[in-house]
């Protein structure tokens, strides 16, 4: 059974048809990349899965449950944004734990999950710092930490590396892939960067003008005539 299934998804704003009959699925522990040029509908697709937008028509299922009408907090997903969405006045630990506190996870459990995330991400010396005192790569790790401590089956990533320089991009890409595999997360990962897609994906969905142009493994897409 696939972890995420989109069936006949359409999305319009007035006359703008952003998505037209999108059908896709992401298996358990699979990393699915949505690839395509700016404006083709990648972010909209991700935001629909997250529940940050509502489809004009079609249904979205997560772990066999129709979540089409559920708010983001009820969907069992975590999301990493391009700009990381960190709170400047909170330190690293508080930023990572923010969602858990809001969901009333007990303090002892919060502590345990923080320790795990921090050791996975190599953030142990930085817990008391604020985001402004950290490098771009470290800020990215805080955002990843937040996704890890949520301990949900689905992680959604919207151009997570686009604010980093080339060297860090490559490093963080590998780190994300290792974490995703180790934690067996089902991940939908949005990028416009073909090399990034080819190196990180199990499967790639190539989008164009609001529809799916190609679908397959990186090898399948690389070997296209
Ligand atoms: P991508 O992520 O591939 O760059 P988007 O999903 O952001 O593409 O956008 C797809 C299309 O939908 C674009 O034409 C964009 O301008 C339009 N769009 C996205 N969000 C909105 C919105 N809130 N209101 C109106 N049009 C939107
Ligand atoms: P990204 O680069 O991450 O795809 P965008 O710049 O496309 O982000 O969109 C940022 C926000 O603006 C999103 O919430 C998106 O839905 C909204 N948006 C995008 N295009 C339009 C548009 N043409 N009209 C109104 N809102 C839009």
TrEMBL record:
Residue span, ABC transporter domain: 4-225
Molecular functions (GO terms): ABC-type ferric iron transporter activity; ATP binding; ATP hydrolysis activity
Top-level division of the source organism's lineage: Bacteria
Entry keyword annotation includes Coiled coil: no
Gene Ontology cellular-component terms listed: ATP-binding cassette (ABC) transporter complex, substrate-binding subunit-containing
Keywords: ATP-binding, Cell membrane, Membrane, Nucleotide-binding, Translocase, Transport
Identification of the protein by name: ABC transporter ATP-binding protein
């Amino acid at each position: 059974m696939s972890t995420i299934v989109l069936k006949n998804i359409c999305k319009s704003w007035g006359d703008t048809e952003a998505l037209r009959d999108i059908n896709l699925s992401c298996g358990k522990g699979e990393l699915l990349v949505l690839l395509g040029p700016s404006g083709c509908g990648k972010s909209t697709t991700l935001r629909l899965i997250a529940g940050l937008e509502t489809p004009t028509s079609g249904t979205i299922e997560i772990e066999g449950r129709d979540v089409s009408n559920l708010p983001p907090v009820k969907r069992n997903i975590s999301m990493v944004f391009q700009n990381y969405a960190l709170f400047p006045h909170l330190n690293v630990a508080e930023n990572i734990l923010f969602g858990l506190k809001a969901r009333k996870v007990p303090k002892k459990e919060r502590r345990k999950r923080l320790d795990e995330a921090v050791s996975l991400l190599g953030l142990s010396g930085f817990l008391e710092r604020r985001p402004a005192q950290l490098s771009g790569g470290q800020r990215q790790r805080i955002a990843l930490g937040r996704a890890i401590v949520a301990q949900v089956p689905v992680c959604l990533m919207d151009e997570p590396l686009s604010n980093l320089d080339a060297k860090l991009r490559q490093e963080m890409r590998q780190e994300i892939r290792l974490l995703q595999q180790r934690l067996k997360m089902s991940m939908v990962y949005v990028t416009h960067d073909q090399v990034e897609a080819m190196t990180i994906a199990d499967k790639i969905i190539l989008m164009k003008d609001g529809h799916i142009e190609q679908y397959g493994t990186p090898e399948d897409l690389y070997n296209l005539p």
